[in-house]
Specification:
This protein is mainly alpha-helical. The chain contains five helices and no strands. The protein has a domain at 23-55 and 63-90. It is elongated and about 55 Å long. The model has no long low-confidence stretch (mean pLDDT 78).
C-alpha cells in the first residue's frame, strides 16, 4: 500500500487499510490460505489435495505449517471482516473512534473521480 500523504502530516500506517477499504495484510493472507485449502479439499484430483493428504514430517519445531494454520482457521469459523472489526475496536490508534466499522467505506469513497484523458 502506498502512503497517502496530507498537506501537513502523512497518514499513519494503521489508517491505510481503513481509508482504502482493504483488509490488513495479515487478515488477507489468512483468508487466502483458507480459500486455497478449502478449494483443494473440494477438488480431489488437485496436486495440493494429494500433497495435503500425504503430509511431510515436521522438520523444524519452530515453524508453523500452513495446513495446521488453515485447519485452525476452519475450525474457528474465521471471517476476516469480523476479526478486523474486533481488532479495530480494541486498538489504541489515535482517533479510532471516528470509524465505528472498518468494513464500511469512509464517507466520500463513492465520489466520482477525475478522468484525465491524454
Amino acid at each position: 500500500m502506498r502512503t497517502v500523504s496530507g498537506t501537513v502530516k502523512s497518514t499513519s500506517t494503521q489508517w491505510l487499510p481503513i481509508l482504502t477499504n482493504i483488509l490488513p495484510p495479515t487478515l488477507c493472507r489468512k483468508e487466502a490460505l483458507l480459500r486455497k485449502t478449502t478449494k483443494s479439499d473440494k477438488t480431489k484430483r488437485s496436486l495440493l489435495y494429494q500433497m495435503l493428504r500425504n503430509k511431510p514430517n515436521l522438520r523444524l519445531k519452530s515453524r508453523k505449517l500452513p495446513w495446521t494454520t488453515a485447519k485452525e482457521l476452519a475450525l474457528s469459523n474465521f471471517e476476516g471482516t469480523k476479526e478486523w472489526r474486533e481488532n479495530w475496536t480494541s486498538t489504541d490508534v489515535k482517533n479510532s473512534g471516528l470509524v465505528s466499522d472498518p468494513n464500511k467505506g469512509v464517507e466520500g469513497m463513492d465520489l466520482p473521480r477525475c478522468m484525465v484523458r491524454t
